[in-house]
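Kindly inspect both lines:
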Amino acid sequence: MHLPVEHPHATAEALALDIAARLRSALAARGHALLRVSGGRSPVAFFEQLRIQPLDWAQVAVQLVDERRLPDGHAERNETLLRSHLLQGPAAATRLLRLDETHVADAQRMADVTVLGMGEDGHTASLFPDAPGVAEALRPDASPSVVALTPTQAPHPRLTLNLAGLLNSRHTVLSIAGPAKWAVYQRALEHARVASAGAPDSLLPIALVLRHASAPVAVWHAD
């Protein structure tokens, strides 16, 4: 599902409304909800729109899909950004599930919604195509887990959900902005199509998400 191109602020607001509605449906169906989100600066506007949505936040758990291995409170940790821009006001009642290797059971829980970003190299979460060991982390038949990777083209060692962990979701969103990332997404779509036709899987990580997701990924694209 491809959403129309809009101004980034309008896209952030529309996405927040959509995700809030999906979380309300999960709360109505099961009494609790799990939201997984990406870090970095790109989702800040979305976080600030989502935190003002009327939800039973105390019954919502949030987990990052990846984290930088830095001390607690470090300015470049995704958790620091999440606490500053999402877990504020009513949304402060949300339960934050720490992403670390001692809480693998949390990675194995099915998310109601997962919101992913994408880099211009096709990485998503911290599944960088150049990271040693990434091929194992990209196996769709593995068990959902947290893995340690050290990209060669990005700062800091990382913890990340593996591909199976990212796929463990009832609804998946890919949120991207700008023409460069749109072009990468189009290339990833072609990789996913060719792989589905019998060619070997591409190591473009986002292509593997698009190929193996149990339901179509909702793509939100802003100028």
Remarks:
- The CA atoms of residues 24 and 30 lie 10 Å apart.
- The domain at 8-222 is CATH 3.40.50.1360 (Rossmann fold).
- The first strand starts at residue 33 and ends at 37.
